[in-house]
Each structure stands twice: as C-alpha cells, then as structure tokens.
Design goal:
The chain has helices spanning 44-52, 73-77, 95-105, 110-123, 139-151, 169-186, 197-200, 220-225, 244-247, 271-280, 293-308; strands at 4-15, 18-29, 33-37, 59-64, 67-68, 80-83, 157-161, 189-193, 205-210, 213-218, 231-235, 252-258, 261-266, 285-288. It is of the alpha/beta class and 309 residues long. It folds into two domains: 4-223, 3-Layer(aba) Sandwich (Rossmann fold); 229-289, 2-Layer Sandwich (Alpha-Beta Plaits). Helix 3 (95-105) packs across helix 4, helix 3 packs parallel to helix 5 (139-151) and helix 4 (110-123) packs across helix 5 (139-151).
Length: 309
C-alpha cells in the first residue's frame, strides 16, 4: 500500500470578512498527482501556502507524511518541496550556485548536495548550463531551475503553485513532461495548481475550486463522464454566431462559446438532434464530442447557481 503523504481535514482560512479556504479535505499518496484548478480568487494559492506551512489555518489540520504542520513544522517541511508563484532565484549566481544555496539552507552537506544537484540538473535538462549566470537564462530555464531547487533535498511531496504562469506553450509542455517524469520515476507525490484546464487533465486526480472550496473532485475521466453524450459542438460557427437558433430547441439546455465554436449542452445527443442542428448551421461541422473539463465546471456552476440562487 502506498504511503499517505498529505492528510488534510476541515481546513479553513479567512482574511477579515473574506473566506479564502473553506472546509477543504485532501488525501494524497506517494506517486499520485493532484491538479487544483479554478478561476483567479478561487483559493488555490492560499491552500498551497497552508499546505507548505507558509500560513497558519484558522481551523483544520495539515499532516505531511504524518507530521502535523502546526506542531512539527520542521519535520513536516523536511518531506516537501515548494515552488511558489513568486519563487525567487539569485540572478547574479550561476545555476549550480543557486542550487547550492537552497541545498545548504536545508542543511545538506557538500558531500550530499553536489552529486544530487548534478543528478537533478541532468533530470531537468540543465546540466550543460550549470555554470551559466541565472540572469541570462530564459524564462523556461528559470522555471526548470526553480523545480531543481525544490527537488535538491529529495522531498517526498512537491507543491507547485501555478508553475507555468507566464511561459509559452512549448515551455508549458516541456515543464509538464518533467512533472509527469518526477511522479513516474521518483515516486514523488505532487500537488499542482493551475488555471489551465488542459493542464489538470494530465493529472490522476482533479480538484475544481471556487470560493475557497473544492466543489468537484475525481479523475478527469470521471468528471467528463458526468456529461457523457451531452455535449454537441458546432465547429466553425465563429464568435459572432447566432445562439438563438439552437437555444430555442427543447433538447438544448445551454449554449456557450468555445473559441470559434459553440458547445451545446443537451439532454442527450442523438443523430436526429445533430441533423436538426446541422440544418440551422449548414456551413458548420456539427458533432457529438467528449466533454472538456471546462464544460463540466461551467455546467456544475450553473446548476449550483440555479439551486442556491
């Protein structure tokens, strides 16, 4: 049985009248990858800081590898690596000197940190740049160096707070390949927050947040299955497409724009319904598709608003 690395119960944090995190519970095991997503202000960063011990919760408990973060913070932090949104590197130091700094802050002796540093630089494809001044690295390379610094002490748990913020699509892809490699080859448990639904779709488990709460949780497949056979795409409709044509159909529950397409949430997709919609949009491709996580989240939030007003 895999080791339980994170055990969180009843976590709450408020800032004056604003509740940033409310009644959050998480369990994460070694070798698991959990993605937290949601809009800005959903509580993702506050939750990550609470898990890392950078903030103290109002109520609730955070256990990291069995250690209570509130009672035994030093022991708990020994087992985690944390890459925050505002992670700062020393621009005038070399790549290797930056890793040395973070290793020595952790109390790792030269006999241990240097071979580990070279191993982890090889792992993140920065070995040939070990002597380069950090200020001369590209944005993507700095992200990799930040990851290497968080991994130098061989943590069992890695917390990544929006690690691909502000980087280009190619760098995002490369960084995610590293995350998946860390989970598969090092058996590290990873919790990553991101506003990008396509990124959390790579995770074994997904938590969708809003208003400080994890409202939906499950695998990407489980969440998408909640709308199985209920999403029809009108591809090529354009941003200015007339939604009223399809929204008046009794089978259609909702219509949303997705780039140059429309996504229709229907009671149940069928060839007859697709033909009916095709007649309304003769110059477009109409097809039943696998729901995206955006479809799931928006549908859930709209349903929740209808119920709670």
């Amino acid at each position: 049985m895999k080791d339980l690395l994170v055990d969180i119960q009843g976590l709450k944090k408020s800032f004056g009248p604003i509740t940033a995190v409310s009644d959050v519970a998480i369990k994460l095991y070694a070798g698991d990858l959990l993605g937290l997503t949601g809009p800005d202000g959903a509580g993702k960063t506050t939750l990550m800081r609470l898990m890392a011990g950078a903030m103290t919760p109002d109520t609730g408990q955070v256990l990291i590898n069995g250690f209570d973060m509130a009672k035994f913070p030093d022991q708990a932090r020994e087992h985690l690596g944390y890459l925050s949104q505002n992670f700062s590197l020393y621009e005038d130091l070399t790549v290797l000197e930056n890793i040395r700094f973070f290793a020595e802050v952790r109390g790792i002796s030269p006999d241990h940190w240097h071979p580990r540093a070279m191993e982890i630089l090889e792992f993140v494809d920065l070995a040939e740049f070990s002597d380069r001044i950090t200020g001369k690295l590209s944005g993507g390379m700095k992200q990799k160096l930040g990851l290497a610094s968080a991994l130098v002490h061989q943590p069992r748990l890695l917390l990544l707070d929006e690690p691909t913020r502000g980087v280009d699509p190619v760098t995002r892809q490369d960084f995610w390949q590293l995350i998946l490699k860390i989970v598969a080859e090092e058996g590290v448990g990873v919790i990553v927050s991101t506003p990008h639904m396509d990124e959390v779709a790579r995770c074994q488990q997904v938590g969708m947040m809003k208003g400080g709460k994890i409202l939906l949780k499950g695998s990407a497949r489980e969440l998408r299955d909640t709308l199985a056979d209920r999403i029809i795409e009108i591809h090529g409709a354009g941003r200015s497409a007339d939604r009223t044509k399809c929204s008046s159909l009794s089978e259609v529950q909702d219509v949303r724009s997705f780039g140059e397409s429309l996504h229709l949430q229907v009671l149940k997709s069928s060839p007859a319904l697709i033909k009916k919609i095709q007649k309304l949009y003769p110059n477009c491709e109409v097809r039943s598709i696998t729901p995206t996580l955006e479809d799931v989240f928006i549908a859930f939030m709209e349903q929740r608003e209808r119920i709670h007003g």
